[in-house]
Amino acid sequence: STAVGKEWFNDVSFVGDSLTQGMQLYDTGLPNANFCAYKGVGPNAVVNNTTCRRADGEKEVPMEALASQQPRALYILLGTNVLNRDDDYSNFLTYYRLMLDMVTQTLPNTQIYVQSITPVRPDVRATHPGLYKERLCEINNELAAIALEKNCAFLNLWEVLADENGDLKAEYAQKDGYHVKPEGYTVWVDYLCTHTVTTTTAAAA
User: Which of 29, 33, 54, 136 is deepest in the core (most CB within 10 A)?
Assistant: First the structure.
């Protein structure tokens, strides 16, 4: 889509874990947007109305915070924390569906964007057996299908964060191999700015 300026995100909300906190905390992200970002959470925390701790230490219930924000658009990125074991991920997808239903019910006029789980470096698998590209690609395909089913837009962040092998680009990777450096947020934000849905492109997206 035609690129929007960063001010487009001033009345937009982001839901996510520590990867989304980076979007909030780094100047290269979108610090002027609204954030419901909590370290270590998955979609189950949203569905179960768990009290979560924000980056500033304050606690809140994600759905209550979103209901008060009433954002024009909502960007969701969840999964890295709850998928680090190499086991059946159907439970994760079930919670993701329930979360999208809850969000749609609470925010009926909000355009929802489901962001793909971000790529990781190959050595991450040694300490997080579930975080490897083949499995994450499978899960992202499922998320894309769920987004379509729920009339949400799906954003494939691998288009800008992954190298030709499907790994997180080395220059964007923090030492742990899955968190993203400020430089990575620069290209991530550029991608979001050029992938917005208008009423005419909604069907195509």
Answer: 29
